[in-house]
Design brief:
Blueprint lengths: L2 E2 L4 E2 L1 H22 L4 H16 L4 H37 L1 H13 L4 H14 L4 H19 L6 H9 L2 H5 L6 H10 L7 H28 L23 H26 L2 E6 L2 E6 H44 L24 H15 L2 H20 L4 H14 L1
Antiparallel strand pairs: 1-2, 3-4
Protein backbone atom coordinates (compact mmCIF):
# COMPACT_ATOMS: atom_id res chain seq x y z
CA UNK A 1 0.00 0.00 0.00
CA UNK A 2 1.17 3.55 -0.71
CA UNK A 3 1.16 6.42 1.76
CA UNK A 4 0.93 10.08 0.91
CA UNK A 5 1.92 13.25 2.70
CA UNK A 6 4.75 11.57 4.61
CA UNK A 7 2.59 11.18 7.74
CA UNK A 8 0.88 7.87 7.08
CA UNK A 9 -2.14 9.19 5.20
CA UNK A 10 -3.96 6.50 3.23
CA UNK A 11 -3.97 6.63 -0.52
CA UNK A 12 -7.57 7.48 -1.41
CA UNK A 13 -8.00 4.67 -3.93
CA UNK A 14 -6.68 2.08 -1.47
CA UNK A 15 -8.92 3.39 1.31
CA UNK A 16 -11.95 3.30 -0.97
CA UNK A 17 -11.16 -0.25 -2.10
CA UNK A 18 -10.89 -1.34 1.53
CA UNK A 19 -14.24 0.25 2.38
CA UNK A 20 -15.87 -1.49 -0.59
CA UNK A 21 -14.51 -4.88 0.47
CA UNK A 22 -15.70 -4.32 4.04
CA UNK A 23 -19.11 -3.24 2.75
CA UNK A 24 -19.40 -6.41 0.68
CA UNK A 25 -18.44 -8.49 3.70
CA UNK A 26 -21.00 -6.79 5.95
CA UNK A 27 -23.70 -7.21 3.28
CA UNK A 28 -23.00 -10.93 2.88
CA UNK A 29 -22.95 -11.53 6.62
CA UNK A 30 -26.26 -9.69 6.95
CA UNK A 31 -28.11 -11.65 4.25
CA UNK A 32 -26.65 -14.91 5.52
CA UNK A 33 -27.75 -14.09 9.06
CA UNK A 34 -31.24 -13.41 7.69
CA UNK A 35 -31.33 -16.94 6.29
CA UNK A 36 -30.69 -16.37 2.57
CA UNK A 37 -28.48 -18.72 0.56
CA UNK A 38 -24.79 -17.85 0.76
CA UNK A 39 -24.19 -19.68 -2.52
CA UNK A 40 -26.49 -17.15 -4.21
CA UNK A 41 -25.29 -14.00 -2.47
CA UNK A 42 -21.55 -14.72 -2.29
CA UNK A 43 -20.98 -13.97 -5.99
CA UNK A 44 -23.40 -11.03 -5.78
CA UNK A 45 -21.41 -9.51 -2.92
CA UNK A 46 -18.02 -10.21 -4.51
CA UNK A 47 -19.01 -8.92 -7.94
CA UNK A 48 -20.75 -5.98 -6.31
CA UNK A 49 -17.37 -4.98 -4.90
CA UNK A 50 -15.91 -5.18 -8.41
CA UNK A 51 -18.84 -3.14 -9.78
CA UNK A 52 -18.19 -0.31 -7.33
CA UNK A 53 -14.47 -0.40 -8.09
CA UNK A 54 -14.59 -0.61 -11.90
CA UNK A 55 -17.93 -1.55 -13.58
CA UNK A 56 -16.20 -2.53 -16.82
CA UNK A 57 -14.38 -5.37 -15.04
CA UNK A 58 -17.52 -7.23 -13.91
CA UNK A 59 -17.98 -9.48 -17.02
CA UNK A 60 -14.29 -10.47 -17.36
CA UNK A 61 -13.93 -10.99 -13.60
CA UNK A 62 -17.06 -13.16 -13.54
CA UNK A 63 -16.00 -15.34 -16.48
CA UNK A 64 -12.23 -15.41 -16.21
CA UNK A 65 -11.62 -15.12 -12.48
CA UNK A 66 -14.64 -15.96 -10.36
CA UNK A 67 -15.98 -18.94 -12.34
CA UNK A 68 -12.53 -20.32 -13.14
CA UNK A 69 -11.47 -20.16 -9.50
CA UNK A 70 -14.75 -21.72 -8.40
CA UNK A 71 -14.29 -24.62 -10.84
CA UNK A 72 -10.71 -25.11 -9.66
CA UNK A 73 -11.88 -25.08 -6.06
CA UNK A 74 -14.53 -27.73 -6.67
CA UNK A 75 -12.13 -29.84 -8.74
CA UNK A 76 -9.50 -29.85 -6.01
CA UNK A 77 -11.54 -29.99 -2.85
CA UNK A 78 -14.97 -31.52 -3.48
CA UNK A 79 -13.64 -35.09 -3.03
CA UNK A 80 -12.28 -34.05 0.36
CA UNK A 81 -15.60 -32.48 1.30
CA UNK A 82 -17.47 -35.60 0.20
CA UNK A 83 -15.19 -38.14 1.88
CA UNK A 84 -15.06 -36.05 5.05
CA UNK A 85 -18.85 -35.82 5.16
CA UNK A 86 -19.26 -39.57 4.57
CA UNK A 87 -16.64 -40.36 7.22
CA UNK A 88 -18.42 -38.17 9.73
CA UNK A 89 -21.75 -39.75 8.88
CA UNK A 90 -20.56 -43.36 9.30
CA UNK A 91 -18.91 -42.40 12.60
CA UNK A 92 -22.29 -41.06 13.66
CA UNK A 93 -24.31 -44.04 12.39
CA UNK A 94 -21.98 -46.54 14.03
CA UNK A 95 -22.36 -44.92 17.45
CA UNK A 96 -18.60 -44.36 17.63
CA UNK A 97 -18.94 -40.60 18.18
CA UNK A 98 -21.16 -41.05 21.24
CA UNK A 99 -18.84 -43.75 22.56
CA UNK A 100 -15.85 -41.40 22.36
CA UNK A 101 -17.79 -38.57 23.99
CA UNK A 102 -18.95 -40.79 26.83
CA UNK A 103 -15.47 -42.24 27.43
CA UNK A 104 -13.77 -38.82 27.60
CA UNK A 105 -16.43 -37.50 29.98
CA UNK A 106 -15.95 -40.52 32.24
CA UNK A 107 -12.17 -39.95 32.30
CA UNK A 108 -12.21 -36.19 32.94
CA UNK A 109 -15.30 -36.21 35.15
CA UNK A 110 -18.67 -34.58 34.73
CA UNK A 111 -17.70 -31.80 37.14
CA UNK A 112 -15.25 -30.53 34.50
CA UNK A 113 -18.00 -29.94 31.97
CA UNK A 114 -16.31 -27.19 29.94
CA UNK A 115 -12.94 -28.96 29.66
CA UNK A 116 -14.61 -32.30 28.83
CA UNK A 117 -16.62 -30.86 25.96
CA UNK A 118 -13.59 -29.03 24.53
CA UNK A 119 -11.45 -32.20 24.63
CA UNK A 120 -14.19 -34.31 23.06
CA UNK A 121 -14.68 -31.86 20.20
CA UNK A 122 -10.91 -31.63 19.68
CA UNK A 123 -10.49 -35.41 19.46
CA UNK A 124 -13.32 -35.81 16.97
CA UNK A 125 -12.35 -32.94 14.67
CA UNK A 126 -8.64 -33.78 14.69
CA UNK A 127 -9.63 -37.33 13.81
CA UNK A 128 -11.36 -36.10 10.65
CA UNK A 129 -15.00 -36.01 11.72
CA UNK A 130 -17.00 -33.21 10.08
CA UNK A 131 -17.40 -30.12 12.26
CA UNK A 132 -21.18 -30.16 12.04
CA UNK A 133 -21.38 -33.88 12.84
CA UNK A 134 -19.34 -33.12 15.96
CA UNK A 135 -21.78 -30.41 17.03
CA UNK A 136 -24.82 -32.67 16.73
CA UNK A 137 -23.04 -35.58 18.43
CA UNK A 138 -21.72 -33.56 21.37
CA UNK A 139 -24.63 -31.20 22.01
CA UNK A 140 -26.91 -33.63 23.96
CA UNK A 141 -23.99 -34.54 26.26
CA UNK A 142 -23.02 -30.89 26.70
CA UNK A 143 -26.60 -29.87 27.52
CA UNK A 144 -26.92 -32.59 30.15
CA UNK A 145 -23.55 -31.79 31.76
CA UNK A 146 -24.25 -28.06 31.82
CA UNK A 147 -27.69 -28.71 33.27
CA UNK A 148 -26.27 -30.90 36.05
CA UNK A 149 -23.52 -28.37 36.79
CA UNK A 150 -25.99 -25.45 36.61
CA UNK A 151 -23.77 -23.73 34.03
CA UNK A 152 -25.51 -21.20 31.77
CA UNK A 153 -26.64 -22.83 28.55
CA UNK A 154 -25.53 -19.78 26.59
CA UNK A 155 -21.92 -20.92 27.13
CA UNK A 156 -22.44 -24.16 25.20
CA UNK A 157 -21.91 -22.65 21.69
CA UNK A 158 -18.58 -21.04 22.57
CA UNK A 159 -17.42 -24.20 24.36
CA UNK A 160 -18.18 -26.40 21.36
CA UNK A 161 -16.73 -23.81 18.99
CA UNK A 162 -13.44 -23.66 20.91
CA UNK A 163 -13.03 -27.43 20.69
CA UNK A 164 -14.28 -27.96 17.15
CA UNK A 165 -13.90 -24.70 15.19
CA UNK A 166 -10.55 -23.34 16.33
CA UNK A 167 -7.18 -24.99 16.97
CA UNK A 168 -8.05 -28.51 15.75
CA UNK A 169 -9.65 -27.09 12.62
CA UNK A 170 -6.63 -25.21 11.34
CA UNK A 171 -3.80 -24.80 13.87
CA UNK A 172 -2.76 -28.33 14.86
CA UNK A 173 -0.36 -29.78 12.26
CA UNK A 174 -1.85 -32.63 10.25
CA UNK A 175 -5.51 -31.91 10.92
CA UNK A 176 -7.53 -33.32 7.99
CA UNK A 177 -10.12 -30.53 8.06
CA UNK A 178 -10.58 -28.73 4.74
CA UNK A 179 -9.42 -25.40 6.22
CA UNK A 180 -5.96 -26.91 6.69
CA UNK A 181 -5.95 -28.53 3.24
CA UNK A 182 -6.82 -25.52 1.07
CA UNK A 183 -3.57 -23.56 1.75
CA UNK A 184 -1.44 -26.52 0.62
CA UNK A 185 -2.06 -25.72 -3.05
CA UNK A 186 -1.32 -22.01 -2.60
CA UNK A 187 1.87 -22.34 -0.58
CA UNK A 188 3.07 -25.75 -1.87
CA UNK A 189 3.04 -27.20 1.63
CA UNK A 190 1.49 -30.22 3.36
CA UNK A 191 -1.07 -30.44 6.13
CA UNK A 192 1.86 -30.81 8.54
CA UNK A 193 3.32 -27.40 7.68
CA UNK A 194 5.01 -25.33 10.41
CA UNK A 195 4.56 -27.86 13.24
CA UNK A 196 6.19 -25.70 15.94
CA UNK A 197 4.19 -22.61 15.01
CA UNK A 198 1.02 -24.70 14.84
CA UNK A 199 1.58 -26.29 18.25
CA UNK A 200 2.39 -22.97 19.89
CA UNK A 201 -0.67 -21.40 18.32
CA UNK A 202 -2.85 -24.32 19.42
CA UNK A 203 -1.70 -24.05 23.04
CA UNK A 204 -2.30 -20.30 22.99
CA UNK A 205 -5.77 -20.51 21.41
CA UNK A 206 -6.98 -23.38 23.60
CA UNK A 207 -5.48 -21.94 26.78
CA UNK A 208 -6.82 -18.42 26.32
CA UNK A 209 -10.19 -19.73 25.13
CA UNK A 210 -10.59 -22.06 28.10
CA UNK A 211 -9.55 -19.32 30.54
CA UNK A 212 -12.10 -16.93 29.03
CA UNK A 213 -14.98 -19.44 29.19
CA UNK A 214 -14.11 -20.35 32.78
CA UNK A 215 -14.00 -16.64 33.64
CA UNK A 216 -17.50 -16.19 32.19
CA UNK A 217 -18.73 -19.27 34.06
CA UNK A 218 -17.45 -17.96 37.40
CA UNK A 219 -18.89 -14.52 36.72
CA UNK A 220 -22.27 -16.10 36.00
CA UNK A 221 -22.08 -18.08 39.24
CA UNK A 222 -21.42 -14.91 41.23
CA UNK A 223 -24.51 -13.33 39.68
CA UNK A 224 -26.54 -16.38 40.58
CA UNK A 225 -27.14 -17.26 36.93
CA UNK A 226 -27.84 -20.93 36.34
CA UNK A 227 -28.58 -23.15 33.36
CA UNK A 228 -31.65 -21.13 32.48
CA UNK A 229 -35.38 -21.59 32.07
CA UNK A 230 -37.88 -21.30 29.20
CA UNK A 231 -35.21 -22.32 26.69
CA UNK A 232 -35.98 -23.39 23.13
CA UNK A 233 -34.80 -26.51 21.28
CA UNK A 234 -33.89 -28.44 24.41
CA UNK A 235 -32.60 -31.94 23.63
CA UNK A 236 -34.27 -35.00 25.05
CA UNK A 237 -32.96 -35.92 28.52
CA UNK A 238 -29.83 -37.99 28.04
CA UNK A 239 -30.24 -41.65 28.87
CA UNK A 240 -27.39 -44.05 29.48
CA UNK A 241 -27.09 -46.69 26.78
CA UNK A 242 -24.63 -49.33 25.71
CA UNK A 243 -21.99 -47.82 23.46
CA UNK A 244 -19.32 -49.54 21.35
CA UNK A 245 -15.94 -50.14 22.95
CA UNK A 246 -14.19 -46.72 23.03
CA UNK A 247 -10.90 -48.21 21.80
CA UNK A 248 -12.68 -49.58 18.75
CA UNK A 249 -14.55 -46.30 18.35
CA UNK A 250 -11.37 -44.25 18.26
CA UNK A 251 -9.55 -46.60 15.87
CA UNK A 252 -10.91 -45.01 12.63
CA UNK A 253 -9.67 -41.62 13.84
CA UNK A 254 -6.23 -43.09 14.53
CA UNK A 255 -6.22 -44.70 11.07
CA UNK A 256 -6.98 -41.34 9.45
CA UNK A 257 -4.22 -39.56 11.38
CA UNK A 258 -1.53 -42.19 10.79
CA UNK A 259 -2.45 -42.73 7.13
CA UNK A 260 -2.44 -38.98 6.49
CA UNK A 261 1.06 -38.65 7.97
CA UNK A 262 2.48 -41.66 6.12
CA UNK A 263 0.89 -40.85 2.76
CA UNK A 264 2.00 -37.22 2.95
CA UNK A 265 5.55 -38.53 2.62
CA UNK A 266 4.88 -41.52 0.35
CA UNK A 267 2.82 -39.86 -2.39
CA UNK A 268 5.58 -37.48 -3.63
CA UNK A 269 8.08 -40.35 -3.61
CA UNK A 270 5.77 -42.66 -5.53
CA UNK A 271 4.74 -40.16 -8.23
CA UNK A 272 7.64 -37.72 -8.34
CA UNK A 273 7.32 -33.99 -8.85
CA UNK A 274 5.11 -34.48 -11.94
CA UNK A 275 3.15 -37.36 -13.40
CA UNK A 276 2.19 -37.72 -17.06
CA UNK A 277 -0.31 -39.99 -18.76
CA UNK A 278 -1.58 -40.00 -22.35
CA UNK A 279 -5.29 -40.26 -23.12
CA UNK A 280 -6.50 -40.14 -26.72
CA UNK A 281 -3.10 -39.00 -27.89
CA UNK A 282 -3.11 -36.01 -25.52
CA UNK A 283 -0.63 -35.88 -22.62
CA UNK A 284 -2.06 -35.00 -19.20
CA UNK A 285 0.55 -33.65 -16.82
CA UNK A 286 -0.20 -33.51 -13.09
CA UNK A 287 1.81 -31.33 -10.73
CA UNK A 288 2.00 -33.81 -7.86
CA UNK A 289 3.55 -31.33 -5.45
CA UNK A 290 0.38 -29.23 -5.46
CA UNK A 291 -1.93 -32.19 -4.90
CA UNK A 292 0.05 -34.56 -2.70
CA UNK A 293 -1.47 -33.28 0.55
CA UNK A 294 -4.99 -33.50 -0.89
CA UNK A 295 -4.46 -37.06 -2.16
CA UNK A 296 -3.03 -38.09 1.22
CA UNK A 297 -6.09 -36.82 3.10
CA UNK A 298 -8.50 -38.37 0.60
CA UNK A 299 -6.94 -41.82 0.91
CA UNK A 300 -6.72 -41.46 4.70
CA UNK A 301 -10.43 -40.62 4.94
CA UNK A 302 -11.29 -43.54 2.67
CA UNK A 303 -9.30 -45.89 4.92
CA UNK A 304 -11.11 -44.43 7.93
CA UNK A 305 -14.49 -45.14 6.31
CA UNK A 306 -13.46 -48.73 5.57
CA UNK A 307 -12.30 -49.15 9.18
CA UNK A 308 -15.74 -48.12 10.44
CA UNK A 309 -17.35 -50.68 8.14
CA UNK A 310 -15.02 -53.40 9.41
CA UNK A 311 -16.05 -52.90 13.03
CA UNK A 312 -19.66 -51.72 12.68
CA UNK A 313 -21.00 -52.74 9.28
CA UNK A 314 -24.41 -53.86 10.58
CA UNK A 315 -25.62 -50.56 12.15
CA UNK A 316 -24.00 -48.51 9.40
CA UNK A 317 -25.50 -50.47 6.49
CA UNK A 318 -28.94 -50.35 8.09
CA UNK A 319 -29.07 -46.56 7.62
CA UNK A 320 -26.32 -45.94 5.08
CA UNK A 321 -28.65 -45.20 2.13
CA UNK A 322 -30.27 -42.18 3.73
CA UNK A 323 -27.13 -41.25 5.62
CA UNK A 324 -24.95 -41.16 2.52
CA UNK A 325 -27.47 -38.95 0.72
CA UNK A 326 -27.38 -36.49 3.58
CA UNK A 327 -23.58 -36.60 3.69
CA UNK A 328 -23.13 -35.95 -0.04
CA UNK A 329 -25.69 -33.15 0.07
CA UNK A 330 -23.78 -31.60 2.94
CA UNK A 331 -20.58 -31.77 0.93
CA UNK A 332 -21.98 -29.46 -1.77
CA UNK A 333 -20.26 -26.38 -0.39
CA UNK A 334 -22.46 -25.59 2.59
CA UNK A 335 -25.77 -25.98 0.72
CA UNK A 336 -27.25 -27.61 3.79
CA UNK A 337 -25.83 -25.12 6.26
CA UNK A 338 -27.40 -22.07 4.63
CA UNK A 339 -30.90 -23.28 3.83
CA UNK A 340 -34.03 -23.11 5.94
CA UNK A 341 -32.68 -25.84 8.26
CA UNK A 342 -29.17 -24.35 8.24
CA UNK A 343 -27.14 -23.76 11.36
CA UNK A 344 -29.27 -26.16 13.35
CA UNK A 345 -26.51 -26.62 15.95
CA UNK A 346 -26.63 -22.96 16.87
CA UNK A 347 -30.36 -22.98 17.56
CA UNK A 348 -29.52 -24.52 20.92
CA UNK A 349 -29.84 -21.30 22.92
CA UNK A 350 -32.29 -18.98 21.22
CA UNK A 351 -32.83 -17.19 17.93
CA UNK A 352 -30.69 -14.23 18.93
CA UNK A 353 -27.52 -16.32 18.96
CA UNK A 354 -27.69 -17.71 15.43
CA UNK A 355 -24.30 -16.31 14.43
CA UNK A 356 -23.33 -19.39 12.41
CA UNK A 357 -24.64 -17.95 9.17
CA UNK A 358 -22.53 -14.85 9.56
CA UNK A 359 -19.46 -17.01 10.17
CA UNK A 360 -20.16 -19.07 7.05
CA UNK A 361 -20.71 -15.87 5.08
CA UNK A 362 -17.36 -14.55 6.20
CA UNK A 363 -15.52 -17.67 5.05
CA UNK A 364 -17.31 -17.70 1.70
CA UNK A 365 -16.49 -14.07 1.00
CA UNK A 366 -12.90 -14.61 2.12
CA UNK A 367 -12.57 -17.43 -0.41
CA UNK A 368 -14.22 -15.38 -3.16
CA UNK A 369 -12.13 -12.27 -2.57
CA UNK A 370 -8.99 -14.38 -2.23
CA UNK A 371 -9.61 -15.51 -5.81
CA UNK A 372 -9.45 -11.93 -7.12
CA UNK A 373 -6.22 -10.63 -8.57
CA UNK A 374 -5.56 -8.14 -5.81
CA UNK A 375 -5.64 -11.03 -3.33
CA UNK A 376 -2.91 -12.80 -5.28
CA UNK A 377 -0.84 -9.61 -5.41
CA UNK A 378 -1.13 -9.18 -1.64
CA UNK A 379 -0.06 -12.77 -0.97
CA UNK A 380 2.83 -12.54 -3.46
CA UNK A 381 4.05 -9.32 -1.83
CA UNK A 382 3.79 -10.83 1.65
CA UNK A 383 5.68 -13.88 0.42
CA UNK A 384 8.50 -11.69 -0.91
CA UNK A 385 8.79 -9.69 2.32
CA UNK A 386 8.90 -12.81 4.49
CA UNK A 387 11.28 -14.51 2.06
CA UNK A 388 13.81 -11.71 2.56
CA UNK A 389 13.46 -11.85 6.34
CA UNK A 390 13.81 -15.63 6.48
CA UNK A 391 16.74 -15.54 4.05
CA UNK A 392 18.57 -13.14 6.37
CA UNK A 393 18.08 -15.69 9.14
CA UNK A 394 19.58 -18.46 7.04
CA UNK A 395 16.31 -20.27 6.30
CA UNK A 396 14.83 -21.12 2.95
CA UNK A 397 11.67 -20.23 1.07
CA UNK A 398 10.20 -23.59 1.98
CA UNK A 399 9.94 -22.36 5.58
CA UNK A 400 8.33 -19.14 4.36
CA UNK A 401 5.56 -21.10 2.68
CA UNK A 402 5.00 -23.16 5.81
CA UNK A 403 4.80 -20.05 7.98
CA UNK A 404 2.39 -18.42 5.54
CA UNK A 405 0.26 -21.58 5.49
CA UNK A 406 -0.20 -21.54 9.26
CA UNK A 407 -0.45 -17.74 9.58
CA UNK A 408 -3.11 -17.56 6.86
CA UNK A 409 -5.26 -19.98 8.86
CA UNK A 410 -4.77 -18.04 12.10
CA UNK A 411 -5.92 -14.87 10.35
Amino acid sequence: MKFVGGRGGWNESVAMSLLIVLGALIFLMFVAYRGYSVILFAPIAALGAVLLTDPSLVPPILSNVFMEKMVDFVKNYFPVFMLGAVFGKVIELSGFSKSIVSAVIDILGRERAVLSIIVVCAILTYGGVSLFVVVFAVYPFAAEMFRQGDIPKRLIPCTIALGAFSFTMDALPGTPQIQNIIPTTFFKTTTWAAPVLGLVGSVFVSGVGLAYIENRRRAAQKRGEGYGTDLVNEPEPFEEEKFPNPWIAVSPLVVVGVANFVLTHLVPRAYGATHEITLGGHPIVTQVGLLAAIWAVEVALLLGILTVFVFAWRPVLARFADGSKAAVAGALLASRTTGPRGCGPWRIVDRKTESCRGLIAFHFLKLNLFAFKFGKLIMDSLHEVLARRFSSLGTGRHNVGQALHRRFLFV
